[in-house]
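queue> pop job 88
queue> type: inverse folding (structure -> sequence)
queue> payload:
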């Protein structure tokens, strides 16, 4: 075989390899499609979707190993804690905010997990709660997740400031101020507000951004740039639909 003929055969072989990735030994076969995941997602599902390490650009995430649903302020289905209670003069709609932030009993998630977030190059040891510092994922049946979001939106116009009895910050009465915050246009639904517990040592005004993806509600504590909820929404949507790689 002439030198020119050998070169032509080699060129054809390379072309075939590029056109059909499974025909050459060095090409990686495509991953089989993943089946959709039924909702509500399990704790194991949520943990696989939590950010860890440098998932988010510019931040370091550390998943909390303790399930959020077993913490003393949340209790268990068999041994629920004493719920935080609104003062009689508080607008009834504020119960939705108190439950979402403190109780998780009116709409108890099937599973709930969280990650602590810190800036990648921060040298400070004290947490600035006004900045993005944690992410929680909670799973519900889809319709219940929609109800949670609707109740939060309904509460915001009338719940500027109210009092609540709670064990979350010790055995005490607390005064809560709720303010406006811009919600990102991301997810299947989103809502945002600021949350301040007046008169406690950590009485910073904390922005809270809540984004729903199917039956999963992601809650971002601290001011968060839009690209982070967008990234997390895509991760959740790909997993739920089975389109993730």
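queue> result:
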């Amino acid at each position: 075989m002439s030198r020119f003929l050998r070169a032509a055969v080699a060129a054809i072989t390379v072309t075939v390899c590029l056109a059909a990735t499974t025909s050459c030994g060095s090409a990686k076969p495509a991953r089989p499609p993943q089946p959709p995941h039924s909702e509500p997602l399990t704790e194991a599902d949520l943990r696989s979707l939590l950010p860890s390490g440098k998932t988010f650009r510019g931040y370091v995430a550390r998943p909390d190993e303790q399930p959020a649903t077993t913490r003393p302020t949340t209790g268990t289905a068999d041994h629920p804690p004493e719920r935080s209670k609104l003062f009689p003069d508080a607008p009834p709609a504020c119960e939705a905010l108190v439950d979402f932030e403190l109780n998780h009993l009116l709409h108890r998630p099937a599973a709930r997990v969280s990650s602590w977030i810190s800036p990648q190059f921060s040298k400070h040891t004290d947490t600035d709660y006004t900045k993005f510092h944690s992410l929680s994922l909670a799973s519900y049946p889809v319709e219940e997740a929609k109800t949670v979001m609707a109740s939060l939106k309904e509460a915001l116009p009338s719940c500027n400031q109210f009092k609540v009895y709670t064990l979350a910050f010790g055995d005490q009465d607390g005064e809560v101020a709720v303010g406006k915050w811009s919600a990102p246009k991301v997810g299947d639904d989103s809502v945002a507000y600021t949350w301040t517990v007046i008169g406690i040592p950590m009485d910073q005004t904390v922005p809270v951004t809540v984004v729903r993806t199917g039956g999963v509600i992601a809650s971002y504590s601290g001011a968060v740039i839009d690209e982070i909820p967008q990234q997390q929404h895509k991760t959740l949507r790909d997993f739920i639909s089975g389109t993730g790689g």
